[in-house]
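Listing S7. Sequence submitted for prediction.
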Amino acid sequence: MRRYLQKCDDLVTTHLLRQAEIGCKACVITNRFIRSPRTALRPQSNLSAFTLIEMLAVIAIIAIMMALIAPAVGNFGSTAGRKGAVNILMNTMEQARVAALESGRDVYVVFVQREFPERDAIAVLRDPDPDSDTTTYEFLTRWIKMPKGVLLYGGKGTSILSATAPLTVFDVDLIPGPVMSGNLKVLKFNSFGGVEFPFKRIERMLIVSEGVRGAGGTEAIVADKKDQIGGFEIITLRRFTGRASLEVSAI
């Protein structure tokens, strides 16, 4: 009986010692992660960060890269503007030619040169239907503005923009509604799809460039260098077929 009591006492003692040991370990772990407010706010010396010299060096590198990239981006933007204008013009001319063939009536592409900040524009009109009572031209398209900063350029000699259409070719008073302000010029397709006006071969071309037009129609392209080495798109038209083509990209 005594031996049995002794054994029970040993088991209880062993269990209590184990519980005490586990409690001590938990206290040590908890104390390791709990800091005082002063310790928590203390900056850590092993944290890494940019120094002022490193940050200035990175800013300088970025500035140099932007300076190198900016001219290329600017040239791309101006070229894209001219290319977009060429696509608009050639598609509109082809639409007018096809409309003249299909309807058997004369069709006109009207160009309007406008002063800054307004943009140059074009529209397609058709002769009135002979079977109707209408006496004014019929709009086949709305007024289509050129991309910003793009000119229908008339400063390189003769072109569609230098040809003045007589009343027997085109009457401005027959344009329905308010007429867009500016210098109006016209390209006329006959019922066979050919170019009836301008009459002269040298005038059956259109020049596109980027620039601005001031008061009195004075035109200024973006830079003198472009005026010397090019920076133009030239569209020419065949007299009998009326088809437009991009001849050269610089003059």
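Caption to Listing S7: primary sequence and predicted structure tokens for the chain studied. The chain has a mean pLDDT of 78. Residues 170 and 186 are 8 Å apart (CA to CA).
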